[in-house]
Amino acid sequence: MAVILEKQRVVLRFKDAVLMTENYGGTESDELNLSVCGGDLVLVRLARLEQTSTFADACAGINRPAIGAVYFLGRNWPEQPPDQANALRGRIGRVFRTGNWINHLSLMENILLSQLHHTRRSARQLRDEAAVLAGQFGLPGVPLGLPGNSTAADLQRAAYVRAFLGRPSLILLEEPTAG
């Protein structure tokens, strides 16, 4: 019996890209050339902690590279009209280095926010999927309280629910080995 390996589609590609970390004196990255295919697990180690968010923002088309290009699902981020860029961002899940919770919204609202904004899925569909994911990540259900009233462990689990919601094509984990 022969094993046939399918070539996976390139999901993310950095081509001769140089990123700028503006918050820390305009630090410039080395030139980045990277291709990530569906199903790949890639660890990107950066020299400075503050570059983590800059790199993730470039992956999500939020920051443009100073030089070169970043492609997501074959599309060069800067060439996308705003509505198309927003739709593409709906295909990216992210666990932020700082949590990135909006304190006056419930955890449920925080979890659903990106998908409600970037996709056309109903709130009910998203709540149902979030409940299944919550169970898979060890929560008894989707947390309903405010972020400030939740334990660090529950916030971390909720962050993974948020990142995996919508079956994203790319999941960005900023500092996956931290706390």
Give a quick rundown of the structure.
The protein has 179 residues and is of the alpha+beta class. The protein is 31% helix and 20% strand. It starts with 9 loop residues before the first strand and ends in a 6-residue tail after the last strand.
Protein model, in words:
The protein is an alpha+beta fold and 179 residues long. Helices cover 31% and strands 20% of the residues. The chain folds into 2 domains: 9-89, no CATH class; 98-179, Rossmann fold. The strands form 3 sheets. A 4-stranded antiparallel sheet has the order 4-1-5-6, with no helix packed on it. The protein has a two-stranded antiparallel ribbon with strand order 2-3. A two-stranded parallel sheet has the order 7-8.
The CATH homologous superfamily of the largest domain is called P-loop containing nucleotide triphosphate hydrolases
Per DSSP E runs of 2 or more residues, the count of β-strands stands at 8
Helix and strand element order: EEEEHEEHEHHHE
Q: What would you call the structural class?
A: alpha+beta
Q: Count the DSSP helices.
A: 5
Overall shape: globular
Give average pLDDT, whole number.
90
Strand order, biggest sheet? 4-1-5-6
* Overall tally of structural domains: 2
CATH architecture descriptor name of the largest domain: 3-Layer(aba) Sandwich
Major sheet description:
4 strands, antiparallel
